Amino acid sequence: GNSVTQMEGPVTLSEEAFLTINCTYTATGYPSLFWYVQYPGEGLQLLLKATKADDKGSNKGFEATYRKETTSFHLEKGSVQVSDSAVYFCALSAADGNNRKLIWGLGTSLAVNP
Amino acid sequence: EPEVTQTPSHQVTQMGQEVILRCVPISNHLYFYWYRQILGQKVEFLVSFYNNEISEKSEIFDDQFSVERPDGSNFTLKIRSTKLEDSAMYFCASRLAGGHEQYFGPGTRLTVT
Fold it and tell me: Which of A:62-81 have CB within 8 Å of B?
């Protein structure tokens, strides 16, 4: 079945450090891939998406590239800020059918210190 | 910018009681979803809804759960007889036909005592 594996947290970085959060997936066909972010006490916000192989999603300085050959969708940011402290979720929606329910990774907690 | 809304933000109920969680999806969206997140754990799919019927449900979505779109705007999740293990954050989401991304509401925190 479909599944998402994320690197375990928590991740603690200093401000302006480089961030990578690894995400790999198992799926049939060509799923769509997403990163969602959950700030403390808030809901789930779409951060970025990619819907086909080699697509790069980007938003707010974050990037992730859909790599079919390695079944990965790693999240990166060149210089993190304190305001990036949140939990980051990698998710996929299956390619088959119209339902497109989201399958989620466990989430990675990021803490950025000034 | 249109957004998904959910009410209440926090619901406390006693075990065995019925609860109804309400959602107003984005107006031109046609696919609706409920997910839940038990504190500190992963987000789990509960049910998807399209064209006034359930299109898929998970193993979690047993006979105690039901969904309804009673009018043109609301989308509700009912739990008939709550259990302690139903305590979680419940998120509603909606999606455009043909769209890939789902837009989430702020969630309802359900506490069963």
Answer: none
- The chain B residue lying nearest A5, using CA atoms, is B42
Strand partners, A4: A25
A95, pLDDT greater than 80 = no
Q: Residue A102 and residue B102: Cβ atoms within 8 Å? A: yes
Model pLDDT for residues A102-114, shown as the tens digit of each residue: 999 999 999 999 9
CA–CA dist A113, A19 (Å, integer): 13
A107 closest CB neighbour out of B33, B42, B101: B42
What does the DSSP assignment read for chain A?
Answer: --EEEE--S-EEEETT--EEE-EEEE-SS--EEEEEEE-TT---EEEEEE-STT-EEEETTEEEE-BTTTTB--EEESS--GGG-EEEEEEEE-SSSS---EEE---EEEEEE-
Task: Please state whether B8 falls in left (phi above 0), alpha (psi between -120 and 50) or beta.
Answer: beta
Q: Which residues of B touch A48 (CB under 8 A)?
A: none
